[in-house]
Amino acid sequence: MTNAGLTAPTFNARIVALRFFFGTTCGREDMKRHMQFRRQPRKLPVVLSVEEVSDLLMAAPGPGLKYQAALSISYGAGLRASEVCNLKISDLDSDRMLIHVELGKGQKDRKVMLSPGLLELLRAYWREARPQGWLFPGKPKINPISPRQLNRAFTSAKNMAGIGKPATLHTLRHSFATHLLEANTDVRVIQVLLGHARLNTTAIYAHVATKTIRGTVSPFETLKKLQDQTLRRGLE
Asked: Is 105 annotated in the active site?
């Protein structure tokens, strides 16, 4: 597998099967030491600027507001594609301004914010389409739209907006988290909103929050002030 140049995910998936075969089926636990997993290089996520997100959402394909509303939820609440697709009208709580995400990743429910601007867009979409049951019905309407359909809508909007970054639908979720961090939102709050089990998964956004990085004062500034004070005392 190494000589064939297989990627880390494919390599590790086969290792899992081999470890099960030798360890469980054959009862040869000692063989596992010969089958180690390969660490996958962790790349920083692609993030869109607020202006790029705005252009992309405005370019969402029609007819109607369906895809603009669906993509807006992905960014405005940081939802995964499957979570957006499986939303029901009953999941929107306009009284408490919350969205109930049912059985997200890891089969866990969670609550995320429903902003006033997003609620206004969703109400306009509902008046236009009058969906029943599923918030974004597919064809037939007894089923929700699929993540594949939503991905196609994202790609179309991205091309129409002239965005050249290698962004995917999941980039809207990355952008949601990064923009919250740049607005000084506590990383533990972001962790809850994203539904991450571990804080270090959320902490990766600190590496791409460029406004936060630019706004952080380097300790060199304190050093420079001390040096300037020393020079002034010497001149005096």
From this structure: yes
Q: Among the options 38, 111, 152, 170, which is catalytic?
A: 170
CA atoms within a 13 Å half-sphere pointing along the CA-CB vector of 156: 14
10 Å CB burial of residue 105 (0-12, 13-18, 19+) is middle
196: annotated active-site residue:
yes
Is 100 an active-site residue? Answer: no
pTM greater than the 0.90 cutoff = no
Instruction: Read off the pLDDT of residues 59-92 as tens digits, 9 standing for 90 and up.
Output: 999 889 999 999 999 999 999 999 999 999 999 9
Is the domain spanning 50-212 CATH 1.10.443.10? The answer is yes
Are 92 and 135 a contacting pair, CB within 8 Å? yes
Residue range(s) occupied by CATH 1.10.443.10 in the chain = 50-212
- Structure tokens given for 37: 């997993």
Which residue among the candidates 66, 110, 158, 173 is catalytic per the annotation?
173
Asked about 34 being catalytic, the answer comes back as no
Residue from 19, 105, 111, 211 carrying the catalytic annotation? 105
Classify residue 235 as exposed, middle or buried by CB count within 10 Å of its CB (0-12, 13-18, 19+): exposed
